[in-house]
Each structure stands twice: as C-alpha cells, then as structure tokens.
Write a structure and sequence with these properties.
It contains ten helices and eight strands. It is α/β, with parallel strands linked by helices. It has one domain (4-251): Metal-dependent hydrolases (TIM Barrel, Alpha-Beta Barrel), CATH 3.20.20. Helix 4 packs parallel to helix 5 (134-142). The longest helix is centred in the middle third of the chain and has 18 residues, at 105-122. It is globular and about 45 Å long.
Length: 262
C-alpha cells in the first residue's frame, strides 16, 4: 500500500508522550505512516523540531495554540522557523477558540495575526484550530491573502466548511469522524470532497474506532482512511493515495514514495 501521512499529531510533545513516544513512533513508522508533529506553544514547538531532527519520516509545524496565547511569544515562533527551515514545514496549530476562553479573545486575535505574518513571510501553510469563532476568524484570515492551510479537526457547519474550501483550505478529518453520534457531522464527513481532505489523528487525542479507550497514535490514521472509504464507497487505498498527495502538496514534503507492507 501507499504510505500515509498523519497531518497532525503531538507524538513529540513531552506533556502528552512522556514515556512511550518511542514505541508509539516505531509502531507508526512500521505501519508506513509519515508524521507531521504540531506544536502548541513555544516549548512544544521546539520539541517538535528536536524530535523531527532525530526521527525519520517526521516534519515539524510550529506555533502557539489559542489556549496558550497569553503565555507565549510569537517572536519565538519566528526565530524557530528562521533557524530551522530544513525541518519546519508549517505554522500551527494557531487560531481562535472561544469555547473555553483560556486566553482573552483580543490576545488570541493578536497572536493569530502575528503568526499569520510569519506564515506569509516564510511562505508556509498553516494548521488552524478554530472553535466557536469563525465569525472573527474569517476576516482575520482574509487580511492575509495567499496564506494556505488546513482547518484542523473540523467539526463545524457545512457553511463554514464551504467558506474554507472557497478560500483554498483543506479539511482535517480525524477519529471524530469514526465515532461521532451527531447526524449533521456524520453527513458532513460523508460529503467532504476527497480532494480537499487531509487525514490526521491529533494523537494522543481522539482515538478512532475500533481503538476507543486506548491512547491514540499516528498508526491509527489508517482507521480514519478506512472509515472515509466506507462512507464514500471507494477503496482505502484510493483514500490513502489521494489524501497523502493532498498533504504532501500542502506541506511541500519532498520524500520519495516507498513501498510499505501493512
């Protein structure tokens, strides 16, 4: 089968994978999974770079999550990008989250703008985290024409998905798609165009069926592909091939396809 890209995981992060990151990495590598390791603050962004320097098939995305906006410096993200352009393939996960309000909304917006400026300066795609905040998000994004990216872990409305696709964004589909009981979400996942999907795990979170109850690892991205294949009535190989190509183009990954056995 073709290799598969987990376009969003946190396998590098010492907060989430304190003692078992190597076993999780090896299992995922053995499954033919390439991993995009996404930062959520200054520390985890540095950890993503360090991890990717020492682990084959991993790529770093650096940024400050909206929850962490009040306690982290976007200038550090710029320095990480400038000093590691061979390793950093994107900015993220950044955005707005009004569901929890862990950081003040004006701070979230300022930090988002500063990081979008970094993305535009270095011509990097963005992994966006947006929750209950699209009304404020779209005008900010529109102030940065040309910035591309993915709406990570998308669970919002068809209307906001259409707005994202109209702006050239991809839609991040993960384990939620395999277990949600929300009928609107079920319909949404069924009808997202395959050419606009990138697969992800958000490991260690959002473990897909049939592994619910276990810690999520990038290897389980294959289950997300199988579920999409079932919804669309096509083969898992077709889903993997198309979504991997989508992620490869979005993040401009330059690895050569190799044969993997699952």
């Amino acid at each position: 089968m073709s290799p598969v890209i987990d376009s969003h995981c946190h396998i590098h992060d010492s907060e989430f994978f304190a003692n078992d990151r190597e076993s999780a990495y090896q299992a995922s590598k053995d499954a033919g999974v390439y991993m995009i390791c996404v930062g959520t603050n200054n520390q985890s962004s540095q950890e993503a770079i360090d991890f990717c320097h020492s682990h084959e098939g991993c790529y770093a995305v650096v940024g400050i999550h909206p929850h962490d906006s009040k306690d982290n410096d976007p200038a550090m993200i710029r320095r990480l990008v400038a000093g590691n352009q061979d390793t950093v393939v994107g900015i993220g996960e950044i955005g707005l989250d009004y569901y929890y309000d862990h950081s003040p909304r004006d701070t979230q917006q300022r930090v988002l703008r500063e990081q979008l400026a970094v993305a535009r300066e270095f011509d990097l795609p963005v992994s966006f985290h947006v929750r209950d905040a699209f009304d404020d998000f779209w005008p900010i994004l529109d102030d940065f024409p040309g910035v591309t990216g993915v709406l990570h872990s998308f669970t919002d409305t068809q209307a906001n998905m259409d707005e994202g696709i109209r702006r050239g964004l991809f839609i991040g589909v993960n384990g939620i798609s395999t277990f949600t009981k929300d009928t609107a979400q079920q319909e949404l996942y069924k009808h997202i165009p395959l050419e606009k999907i990138v697969l992800e795990t958000d490991a260690p979170f959002l473990t897909p069926k049939p592994f619910r109850g276990k810690m999520n690892i990038p290897a389980y991205v294959v289950e997300v592909a199988r579920h999409q294949a079932m919804l669309k009535g096509i083969s898992p190989e077709d889903v993997i091939r198309t979504t991997t190509d989508n992620a490869r183009r979005l993040f401009r990954l330059n690895y050569e396809y190799r044969h993997h056995t699952r």
